[in-house]
Write a structure and sequence with these properties.
The structure is a single chain. The protein contains 8 helices and 18 strands. By secondary structure, the protein is α+β, with helices and mostly antiparallel strands. The strands form 4 sheets. Strands 8, 9, 12, 13, 14, 15, 16, 17 and 18 form a 9-stranded antiparallel sheet that branches. The protein has a 5-stranded antiparallel sheet with strand order 1-2-3-7-6. Helix 1 packs parallel to helix 7 (about 270-285). The longest helix has 24 residues, at about 165-190. It is globular.
């Protein structure tokens, strides 16, 4: 299948379009959003020059599965999945923070820790920890949502003092974040995985908080294989991961970390195919289900036509 890296749909009632790093979001009558999960891939806040076939389908279907699996905790934005690459949902008024929760000292938190810091986002981290060790209790390390570039670490008190989120709403967001993470950890454990860290986005409709966007995907979350975790930790070895980290590692090994003047290494067809295979592997491990490739023989034009038909029919049914 050809990768879908650009969309320009003409959906009835469309009032605008937002193009993110990976998702193209269409506003329908200021009531619904059509979220098309493209095959674009980003790392270090840079959209890479080649798309990854099936990546959009992988992310969309994982998110849909976990939205359904957590809908008893709080309502979410999802209304329908009319196409493997598309979710249609309610338009929410988003909170201007992302709720990041970390059960283990990995990634950004580890880099801060390694630099000598013992607090992150105003939250203390114990002395004497090693990379990938489990925190005594999961910590919430929110970020402010940047329109462009990097999201910035921010503390609970800074969020409340700046008026980004009121105290009562923020404390509800913390409660929901912990409950969602507990559920994610339980599901991951059944798959032989550890949900290391993840992020959630929330919004409001008529004063009620809703879960938005993606959830527990390899782009928003970090997973370790449970088998061998303790042995690798004790030996100081790297953990086996299920996340987008392998793409970052490939880029770093080829001299790219998103810094000015650095050039993205060539993404050959074999590199692209390898990333597709890894995303499909991620899907199957995270969901425990075989991945069904959506019509591999279609050209990009035929895929776009399919999406237009499927979404148009869905929106007609919502009128």
């Amino acid at each position: 299948m050809e990768a879908i890296v650009k969309t320009d749909f003409d959906f009835k009632g469309c009032r605008g379009k937002y193009v993110g790093k990976v998702r193209d979001v269409y506003d329908i009558d200021d009531k619904y959003l059509v979220m098309v999960v493209s095959d674009r891939i980003s790392a270090f806040d840079v959209v890479l020059p080649e798309g990854i076939p099936y990546k959009g389908q992988v992310l969309n279907m994982i998110a849909a599965k976990f939205l359904d699996a957590t809908s008893d905790i709080l309502p979410n934005w999802k209304v329908a999945v009319p196409d493997p690459m598309v979710t249609v949902g309610y338009k929410c008024e988003p909170f201007k923070v992302e709720m990041v929760i970390r059960g283990y000292l990995s990634g950004h938190a580890w880099r801060e820790y390694q630099a000598g810091k013992r607090t992150i986002c105003g939250v203390p981290m114990p002395d004497g920890m090693v990379e990938n060790a489990k925190f005594p209790e999961p910590i919430i390390t929110p970020t402010s949502k940047a329109a462009e570039g990097h999201d910035e670490d921010i503390s609970k008190e800074e969020i409340i003092a700046s008026g980004l989120v009121g105290r009562e709403d923020y404390e509800r967001l913390e409660e929901y974040t912990r409950a969602l993470y507990r559920r994610g950890c339980e599901i991951a454990a059944k798959m032989g995985l550890i949900l290391v860290d993840t992020k959630y986005e929330f919004g409001k409709i008529d004063g009620r908080i809703y879960l938005m966007d993606e959830i527990h995907t390899p782009d928003s979350s970090r997973y370790f294989y449970a088998e061998g975790y303790e042995q690798r930790l004790a030996a100081g070895e790297r953990q086996r991961q299920l996340s987008k980290e392998f793409v970052r590692e490939w880029l770093m090994a080829n001299g790219f970390q998103g810094q000015p003047g650095q050039k993205v290494p060539e993404m050959t067809p074999s590199v692209v195919a390898g990333i597709t295979d890894r995303y499909i592997e991620l899907y199957e491990h995270i969901t425990g289900e075989p991945f069904q490739r959506a019509e591999a023989s279609l050209t990009s034009g035929q895929i776009l036509d399919r999406i237009q038909r499927n979404v148009s029919a869905c929106l007609e049914g919502l009128k």
